[in-house]
Every structure is written in structure tokens, then in C-alpha cells.
Amino acid sequence: MCNACGNPAVPGHWTEAGAATPGDRLRARFHRAGLLDKVLRPYGLTAHDGGVVPGIQLSTLSGNQSILPDLTAVWAEAERLLGRPIDPLDPAFLNDD
Amino acid sequence: MTTDFADGRMRLTILGGYLGSGKTTWLRHQLHVGSFGDVHVIVNEAAETGVDDVLLKSAKGLTLLAGGCSCCTGRQDLITALRTLCDQQSRDARDAPRLQRIVLETSGLADPAAILAAIQGDPVVVNHIVIDQTIVVVDALHGLAQLQTEPLGRRQIGAADRLIISKGDAVAATDLTLLRATLRALNPSAAQSAAILGAPQPLADLPEDAQAQPLPPLSDEDTRGAIFPTRITIDPEIDWSAFALWLSALLHARGNDLVRVKGVLPTPAGRLLLQTVRKVVQSPEILPVQANQTEDGTIVFLGRGFGPEDLQKSLRKFTRSRPSP
Questions:
Q1: Contact call for residues B304 and B223 (beta carbons, < 8 A)
Q2: Model confidence pLDDT, tens digit, residues A24-63
Q3: Which class for B49: exposed (0-12), middle (13-18), buried (19 or more C-beta within 10 A)?
Q4: The complex's ipTM?
Q5: From B53-67, B97-111, B191-205, B228-242, the region with the lowest mean pLDDT
């Protein structure tokens, strides 16, 4: 653990499982950030992971930014910003064909 | 079970079960026959004075946590005890024999899910200890009656990886089948076995059509309805990142309604065993290739507050609207 920034505090978030080498991990981070960004855009949020900052950067369209260590923290921050959680079982999402 | 684990972390088994279900009896026998190998046992008792520690002398090391259930009031004591073990482990010489396994015997009032959350949430402990499995002992004599009235009894069943039915010799075969079918309805992903005073008792295969005992809704369950199991199938070509995104969002939004998620997923790195209890996800594990992989690609969700088709539909929509990797 880095004693300046505390990263990484735990041995990898579960969503990062399955990538063994540092190269794979970095590729997976880029890929995940791309997917996350597509999910968040309709809610007025954007996600970015450049591989440099240790974490996912979540921004509102007005430029408010936070750096979050993992997806669990991303969903919690999104809920705080939106006032409700992003729910994959939301009937509005399920029935939007 | 004496081989070193590749990541050097200790394996923790949580042993739970309702008051008087036979946890200590079972553990005592396992220690006697050595099925856990060299093991450190942590016993938690909700009462002020411990009795169980006297019965478990044959463990390599023993910690007694008395006077507080480790899922609530005694949680800090549990974390302290685990940290002490981690600390000893780090101080040992490199070639000294290392402790591999810890068994935590919870008090009969503990909710295993809360303990899991406490352990996963501690930054020191999580680096040294991996939770291996949750074993829950069910009393064949009183199990059904407890499930009728006790929400805690149902939560314990829901959190289990392995269910051990104790005192099976004290009930009729039909009652045992009824209990097993009820347990299967509550937690279809848990393996069932039986033991009498800790010694394994052979169990016949449970007939597919065995009827479960209908369980009444309990007063502290809310209006979201009863917990029911849903199976969803996973496309072998699924993008793991998209799946993880979906599941993490789902757990955040619906974690309190999703009592348990368990399944084996195909990923680029191999077969991944995934399991969660409420909002807590256990470290995913890559499983060795086995001959019998028929269950791969099926995930069981135990939860409530959604329709039976909703999960599969949500996953399909979530992963379809994303670009392929």
C-alpha cells in the first residue's frame, strides 16, 4: 500500500478479476471505463479512466469531478449526484424498447 | 489441505447455524479427524462466559470471543482477533510452518452476511484472509419450526455455501425430505450433507418433485414479498467487464433485496466462481477445469422485489446496448 495515497487499499476490487498481467489490467480498465461512460451518459454523467490517476474519474456535465477507487464507489457517487441509484431493474429501463 | 495457497492468504471458514443446531459438535468431530488440518479456531459466544472453548481443545490455536455476537456488538473484537492472527503470521520466520486455515464458529444469533461484510471491509484483514466458505448447520429436529418463525434462521440458510443437517437420526425420513426440500427452495445453490454428532451420514438423492414446506411471511419482512430463487443463463461469449458493470450496479441498487448470488462464469482467465451475500462480493476465484462443468454459465439469484424474468431481461439489455470489446 502506498502510504501517501493509500492505494491500493485492498487486493483488487472483484470487478477487476480475470486480468492477470499489468498489461491486461490496464486494458481492462480502459475497456471498463468506456462501457461505464456509455451507461452514465444518459444520466448526465461521464466516466474516464486514463490509466494514470489511480481510479475512475466521474464528472458531471457542469465539470464537477470526483476520483473513485472502484465501481462500488462509482455507483454510490452516482446515486449521491442523481438523488437515486442507477437501477438495472428500473421498469423504465427494462421496458424501454 | 496442507498445501500453501498460491496467494499466501489464509482461508477462513465461517461456521454458522441457529442456537443449539450442533455447530460445536460438528466442529469438534472435524478437528478430531483432522479434516481441516492445522487450524486456528475462533469461537464466538453471545453469552459472557464461554463453554465451547473447553470442547475444542484439539485445535492448533483457539481464540474465544465471549460477551457479544460478532455480527453486531462484538464485531470489533472479531476484527481485532483476526488482525492479531495476521500480525503473528507476518512476524513468523519465512520458513516457519504457516497457519493456513481459520475456522470461525459464530454464535447462534449471528447473521453470517454481517460477519462477511465486516471482514471484507477491513483493509488489513482483507489482505491476509480470504473467506473460503460459509457452512451452516441445520438442526433436523427443530430446523423447520425455526424457519417458520425466525427471520434470522432464514438469513443463515440464505448465506450458506454448504448446509449440514444435524441430528438426522432423530427424525423420520419423510420429515428429513421435507426439511431438505424446504432448504433447497430457500437456497438452491448450497450443497447439502448430513452428520450425526459430526460423523458424516449418507443422504439419499433428493427427489426433484419433493415439495417444500410453505413458509409464512414474517412480520419484519416488508411488503416486497418473499425471497425466491431465479436462475439466469449467461452467454459463454459474454464480456466480463460488461457483466461486472451490470452486477455491481445491481448490487448497489438492490443489494438489500438480493440475499445471495452464486454461479460459475466463463471468463478469458478461466472459470470464475462468483458469490455474493447482500452487497458483499467474495473475492472471485478461478476454478480448475473439471470434467463436470454442466453448471457453468448459470447464476442463481436469491432475492425479491422483481419479477422472475426481470434479471435476464435486464442483463440482456445492459450488455446488448454496449459495444463489443
A1: no
A2: 888 888 999 999 999 999 899 999 998 888 889 999 989 8
A3: exposed
A4: 0.87
A5: B53-67
Interface contact A34-B323, CB threshold 8 A: yes
Closest chain B C-alpha to A25 CA, distance in angstroms: 11
User: Which residue in the block uniquely carries the three cell numbers 448446509?
Assistant: B163
Chain A nearest-CA residue for B7: A11
A63 min Cα distance to partner chain B (Å): 23
State in Å, rounded, how far the first CA of chain A is from the last one.
Answer: 46
Measure the CA–CA gap between B242 and B232, rounded to whole angstroms. 16
Instruction: For residue B281, list chain A residues with Cβ-Cβ distance below 8 A.
Output: 14
* Contact yes or no for A89 and B311 at CB 8 A: yes
Mutate to test the interface with B, among A2, A7, A15, A40 (most CBs of B within 10 A): A15
Predicted TM-score of the model (pTM): 0.68
Peptide bond just before A8 cis, omega within 30 deg: yes
Residue B324 confidence (pLDDT):
39
